Amino acid sequence: MRLFYTDSHGVSKNEVINTAVSTPLEDWVDIREADEAYQKWVDSGMKEYTHDEMWQKLGVD
Question: Is the separation of the CB atoms in 26 and 34 below 8 Å?
Answer without folding.
Answer: no
